[in-house]
Structure formats: structure tokens, C-alpha cells
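Entry for flavin-adenine dinucleotide complex. Fields follow.
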Amino acid sequence: MVQRRDFLKSAGIALASASTAAVSGAETKAPPPAPHAGTPEAAPPCAHVQPSIIVDGVRTPLPLVRAQPDRIIALTVCTRPFREHGPRIEKQRLGRKTIVHNYGHGGSGWSLSWGSATLALRLVQETRQERIAVIGCGVIGLTSALVAQRAGMKVRIYAKERFPDVRSTFATGNWSPNSRFCTREAATPELVARWEEMARISFRTYQHLLGLPGNPIEWFDGYYLRDGNGFGADLFAGEPDYPNLESRLSDLMPGGEVLAPGTHPFPVPFVRRYTNMIFNISAYSRMLMADFLAAGGEIETREFEKPEDIARLREKTVINATGYGARALFGDESVIPVRGQLMRLIPQPEVRYGLAYNDQLYMLPRRDGIVLQSPAPGDFGNEDTTPDRAGAERTVQMLADLNQRIRASLPCAQ
Ligand SMILES: Cc1cc2nc3c(=O)[nH]c(=O)nc-3n(C[C@H](O)[C@H](O)[C@H](O)COP(=O)(O)OP(=O)(O)OC[C@H]3O[C@@H](n4cnc5c(N)ncnc54)[C@H](O)[C@@H]3O)c2cc1C
């Protein structure tokens, strides 16, 4: 339960402050029979009524996601580069080079990237080099390169892959600075303070990326729903205990609110509104690449098999932002893969809210597709990136069932 709650917090979802009884003791309406996957749903009696929700006293439309398996346009599996003690951000001498490591950000790499890059930059500046190399062109490599450019350095990126082929592409895309950052045991006051500094630097940076063409970064409201069904099996079995750090950032975000019955269309006894940031990964990663190139950055496609290969680079200071790749390149077995599957449905620009339903289904309204995700048992330590199509269809079906319950419970006049 502790892990589950922390996962939700990590997903950027401010959990209910209501009592446990309010969450688990409520009755659950039996759902009507689900339509067959992929077939049109039967029209409910009040099909003309559109779901809506009251926001700040104003009734606002709440368009439903078209939850059909044949609308899946991308099904991806990726591994989070988790380290028990958090990301490795430190200097290492390698022959005549200085390597500044910046890898191992678990499920929070997008969120912490700017802060982590700033911490790495301080170490780079100690070497007094004006030309540096960055190995890796995921979100950590690009943000490391950009902060170094802003500090006046000339930067060349060397990487095996670049967007959209890097692992960073396959992230969910929400502000989740505390998602699988470190274990509870390893969370010393020093590590927690470092996490908070990274998170606050990143948060500030993101507020300067709002309102730009293509909406790389946005804020959205979401709804945390609970109908008491909860988990069948423990989906987080085998995972370590994670610390609950997000309360340290509570001054940054709106706190969320429990919604009264009649103010929302969800047929569940417990609903809480939360507010979070979204990273529209397609637009945002293009923006990062374009900014790097516009500032004179260069990218060279190259794969390094062993640390000695780095010795041949012309730059004397090198940031290592190889993510999960650091495990093989530097033989660092402290990097543990944590598998995660997600899918994107065809974008629906009218859907501007997120959902977290019964801890089993997450929906994020990204501009490049409606992202759906369900946690699965056995993800920790699992580097298998084979997609599970049947699992993906079950996730879509869960949303289709919820939609049908919403429609069936709408009053005919609103
Ligand atoms: C399912 C899932 C959902 C997630 N959701 C979120 C989220 O919502 N919010 C969030 O903040 N974070 C999220 N994350 C975490 C986030 O995606 C990662 O922490 C982040 O992408 C790590 O970025 P990176 O740049 O270190 O790694 P990568 O993206 O893997 O980039 C590594 C780079 O190094 C290069 N490289 C590696 N090895 C070598 C080598 N030997 N030689 C040359 N080049 C090499 C690669 O080609 C690549 O360019 C999620 C992760 C997963 C798996």
C-alpha cells in the first residue's frame, strides 16, 4: 500500500486527504456489461447528453476518450534507469579526461533533467574547459548540453541514437520528480536535499517553456477516481520501498480538491481533482534539438563500447549521459531496469484532462496522442522490451468500460 501510494504521488497526482474509509468503504455500482472490444458501443438512453464537470462554479464539457483498440497508434515498452542511491552525478578521472557522470534518473528523468544538468555543469566548470563533449542525446544529454552552451561552452554530442529513437521518447510525459528516484533506505538528508534542488531548478525552467508554439509544456487538470475495486494482485510486488518526497514541493503546485457528488460525471464514490504539468514529448524533444543546433551545437553519431573509447575524443571534459546504456558502457550494475509499457491513441485535441482510475489505469492528454498506461507486476529488474498487445487492449477496455458507466449514469437533462 505504501508503495502504491508513493507511486501515485510520483505520478504527480496529489492523493486524497480523505479518510481511508471514505475511499475503501464506499459501495460500488456493478458496471453494465462491456461492449465487445473494437466494436461501436450501444447508444445509452441519454446519448445526446455530453458529460460535463463543474470547475470553479462553471459547468464545463468533459469529452470522453475514444477508447478503442484500433485507435492505438503506438505501443512502446521502455526501461527506466533506476539506481538505489539516485542518479550518479559525479566526476571521474579517466586517463587524461574528466568524465562527469549524469545518469540513472529512474522514472523522473524528464522532470529532473534541468536541475540534474545544472548540478553536472558545476562539476564541468571546475575543469575550466571551454569545449566539452556530451555522450548521449536523450533528455539528460540534451539538457546537459543546453545548460553548458548557456554557460558559454562549445558542445559536441556523441550518441548512438537521437530522438525519436532514444529511450526518453517512450516516457509517459508528466511532471513526476519523485518517480523511482531512489529507495527509502538510501534517502539520506543529503540525497533528499539534492533531489529538492534538482526538482526546484527544473520546475522553474519549465515555467519559462509555457505558451510556446507546439505547446511543448502545459498544465492540465486530472481526476483521481476510486471505486473501491482496487488491485487484484499487487502490481508493485518485487519493487523496493520508495520515499515520499513530494510534500517538500507542496508550495509549487495547486493542492487539489475532493469533488462533491453531482459536480462531476464519474460513477465512482471518490473523485479528487489534481493539477500537473505535461511534457508533449514530440514537440518538446524537437525544441530541445533545435535549440541545441541553433546555439552552434554539433551531433555526431557514434557508439562507445568501453570507457577507453572515450579517451580518443578530442574534448578533455566529457559528460556521460548514456542513461541505461551506462550499465554496459561503464559496467555499472547499480543501474536497474524498470520496465514500462504505454500506448498512444489517436490525438483528441478536445480532451484536456487526465485520469488516474483505481490505481490501474492512467490517462494523459498529450498533444501527440492520448497516453494510456497500466502498471504491471514484474516490471522491476525486467529489461524485456517486448510489447504486450493483449495487456494494452485490456487497458483500453478498462477505459471503454469506465466510459460506458459514465454514459449510463448521465441524467437525461443537465
Ligand atoms: C515507461 C516510462 C515512463 C516514464 N515516464 C516519465 C515521466 O512521465 N516523467 C519523467 O520525468 N520521467 C519519466 N520516465 C523516465 C525518463 O524517461 C528517463 O529517466 C529518461 O528518459 C532518461 O533519459 P536519459 O537521457 O538518461 O536516457 P536515454 O533516453 O536512454 O538516452 C541515452 C542516450 O545515450 C546514448 N547511448 C547509450 N549508450 C551509448 C553508447 N554505448 N555509446 C553511445 N551512445 C550511447 C543513447 O543512444 C541515447 O542517445 C519514464 C520512463 C519510462 C520507461
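NOTE: The chain has one domain: 2-29+45-409.
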